[in-house]
Amino acid sequence: MTLSEGRLPPGQKWVDKITEYAVLGVPKVDIGAYRLRVRGEILNPLEFDLDQVKGMSDLEMVDDLHCVEGWSVRGVRWKGIPLRKIVDLAGPKVSATHVFFRCLDGYSTTIPIDETRKGGCLLATFMNGRELEAELGFPVRLVVPGLYAWKYAKWVSEIIFMDHYEPGYWERRGYHPRGDVWKEERRE
Ligand SMILES: Nc1nc2c(c(=O)[nH]1)N[C@H]1C(S)=C(S)[C@@H](COP(=O)(O)O)O[C@H]1N2
Ligand SMILES: [Mo]
């Protein structure tokens, strides 16, 4: 077994390139008007413009990317804001159990709050050494190691802490609340 086979989750196949998905189309981003807003079950509501988002992007990591449709891409290089940093600034109330992500294209997804404490969990602004391209989620996309890529919300504009599980776009269509690739949490 090669090294990369050992790190392939069950039911997945390695491919060379990612397939770009934009189920609701690629949104136009007004760079000047763009704000990343953080609200919900937190003590400190937050708002960042694009310069602030870039200025906080100091975490780099490399991870494989796994799409629930069965393809995986090795070694994608990400750089962005550690999500833990946002969580610490926001100060979640004890009632917060889930984090819901709203995107400029109308897409949404959600993760249990414990996922945000994973070391490599970040709001990425760079992919493979380059600022995110429009199709890949500019200016900010979510990256959560160990979860399927439908959780990697592109074009994120709002991060909402919730006291309950609220399904996002694919979760409403039967996809799993967490989506752990090693447990094959594809559908509920
Ligand atoms: N806003 C938004 N984010 C999204 C999607 C989408 O349609 N809209 N598709 C998701 C799905 S299903 C996958 S597999 C990944 C694909 O990421 P890629 O386009 O960088 O390959 O983005 C995820 N993030
Ligand atoms: Mo996907």
Summarize the structure.
Helices cover 10% and strands 31% of the residues. By secondary structure, it is mainly β.
Biggest sheet record: 6 strands, mixed
Low-confidence stretches: none
Strand composition percent: 25-35%
What is the straight-line distance between the termini? Answer: 31 Å
Secondary-structure content class: mainly beta
Number of helices: 3
Helical content class: under 10%
Alpha-carbon Rg, integer: 16 Å
Number of strands: 11
Present as ligands are:
ligand MTE, molybdenum atom
The arrangement of helices and strands along the chain is: HEEEHEEHEEEEEE
SSE arrangement:
Elements: H1 3-6, E1 13-14, E2 36-40, E3 46-48, H2 50-55, E4 59-66, E5 71-82, H3 83-90, E6 98-103, E7 108-112, E8 122-127, E9 130-131, E10 141-143, E11 156-162
Parallel strand pairs: 1-5, 2-11
Antiparallel strand pairs: 2-3, 4-5, 5-8, 6-7, 6-11, 8-9, 8-10
The structure holds the ligand Nc1nc2c(c(=O)[nH]1)N[C@H]1C(S)=C(S)[C@@H](COP(=O)(O)O)O[C@H]1N2 and molybdenum atom (MO).
